[in-house]
Amino acid sequence: MILSHRRETRPWQFNGIATFQSGVPIIINQSANTAGIFNPTTRPNWNGTNASLEGSKSEKLAQWFNRSAFSITPAFQFGNAPRVMPNLRQDGEKNFDLSLFKNNYFNEGKWNVQFHAEFFNAFNRVRFSGPNGTVDNGAFGTVNGQGNGPRQIQLALKLIF
Q1: How do the pLDDT tens digits run along the chain, 161 residues long?
Q2: Which of 29, 99, 104, 141 could be cross-linked to 118 through a Cys-Cys bond (beta carbons 3.0 to 4.6 Å apart)?
Q3: Distance CA 32, CA 71 (A)
Q4: Residues paired with residue 152 on neighbouring β-strands, in sequence order
Q5: In 150-159, which positions are buried (b, 16+ CB within 10 angstroms) versus exposed (e)?
Q6: What is the spatial distance between Cα 27 and Cα 7, in angstroms, rounded to a whole number?
Q7: What's the CA gap between 6 and 64, in Å, rounded?
Q8: Which residue, 68, 161, 58, is CA-closest to 114?
């Protein structure tokens, strides 16, 4: 039996992963159980108007959507808001992960020292977390954080023999 070893002839290698996703739908609820059912939360009332707002993400952090489209459900009633609002979404994701490899062959090509440089969220793009969707909360409709991590760089050395 003859085993052959195929040696990679490219000294440099560049890899990338691009992720583009729309934001997930926003769930609007209220923490007070006004209907007297065995559920800790109930749905609020929705007046039927389009609650989405125009503008850039940074302009919408204090008010991601039109809060006046929702109200607390009165006692002993069920709210009419759908479980998920069809036109309200959290911030989407646009992410790039990149890596660079350098192969260094020695000992007549039998050994390879491979250097890795990996960049997660390479362009350091911010994805905001979802807005607070609880009607009876003081922060209702506001975005209070970042939904992804900052850029991370990872370096590695690998001996292949």
Answers
A1: 454 455 556 789 999 999 999 999 999 999 877 777 777 778 899 999 999 999 888 889 999 999 999 999 888 888 899 988 888 999 999 999 999 999 998 888 889 999 999 999 999 999 999 999 999 999 999 999 999 999 999 999 999 88
A2: 99
A3: 12
A4: 120
A5: eeeeeeeeee
A6: 53
A7: 55
A8: 161
Q: Which long-range contacts (CB under 8 A, 24 or more apart) does 131-135 make?
A: 131/26, 131/64, 131/65, 131/90, 133/26, 133/27, 133/28, 133/29, 134/29, 134/30, 134/31, 135/28, 135/29, 135/30, 135/44, 135/70, 135/71, 135/72
Query: Tokens 């052959």 — which residue?
Result: 4
DSSP 13-57: EEEEEEEEEPPPBPPPBBSS--S-SS-S-B--EE-SS--B--S-T
Predicted model pTM: 0.74
* Single-letter amino acid, residue 13: Q
CA angle 117, 123, 126 (to 5 degrees): 130
Name the nearest CA neighbour of 51 among 154, 152, 145, 140: 140
Kindly list the distances between the CA atom of residue 129 and the CA atoms of 125, 133, 151, 160, in Å, as whole numbers in the listed order.
13, 12, 17, 42
CA distance 122 to 19: 12
